[in-house]
Amino acid sequence: MGAMELFQMKGKVSLVTGAGSGLGRVFCEVLAEAGSDIVCSDINEDWAKETADIVAKYGVKTQVIKTDVANQDEVKKMFSKVEQKFGKLDVLINNAGVTTKSLRLYEMPLKDWERSTSINLTGVFLCMQEGIKLMLKHKKGSIINIASICGMKALDPEILAQCNYAASKSGVIGLTKQGAVECGPSGIRVNVIAPGWHLGTRLGEEAGIVSDDQEKNMAFVKRMADKTPLKRTAEPSELKGLALFLASDASGFVTGSTFVQDGGWLCW
Length: 268
Prior knowledge:
alpha/beta; Rossmann fold; 7-stranded parallel sheet; 7 strands; 14% strand
């Protein structure tokens, strides 16, 4: 197989949660460009439809499924619909996630803790459960979980205080490792991407670090860039190559690994 053939996704089916915006939309687009049919899952159906319209331009089949990943019944129905339409699942990217307002641990309301962990961690668990069941029928598959550098290193609370987000993303990394060990003998690979600071996602808005105040936004971006060895923040599109590598046969002997994409943030 030639080098470029390793990255071909024609004939494969990929499901992306949180597909309606940000990183999720980028993942859908790169996999569609490589030839994969795409299932766009999001709690906001209109956003998911927008993504489906974008990826359909690559000539692939699409499916839009409105899903709350923290709801087990909805997750089960989602994977049932995928099997009914496509008969299989080759790639699952667990990207759906939320943040809450930046508050120190002793200030955080229980509802904020529960919201973050239910979607960011329990949602990944539920989708992995059903995705693995479907992949086991064909003894092959790639699961890519999206964590964060916040799950690998504590942040200065003057910059961002989100113990709930950090705990949930750290949990995703642990869940990925265990999933890799359990699923490896069945030909299913499980890896995790831990992104750094990206512009153009809705997570910043939820956390209150991105607002209509452009001067405030630019000050935050500069602060993040100054603390990054590459001296800049990233664009969501810069994750395309890594996502395609992990989804495709190019990473056929890679599992249980955490891929950090942070411009060197964790080096310091």
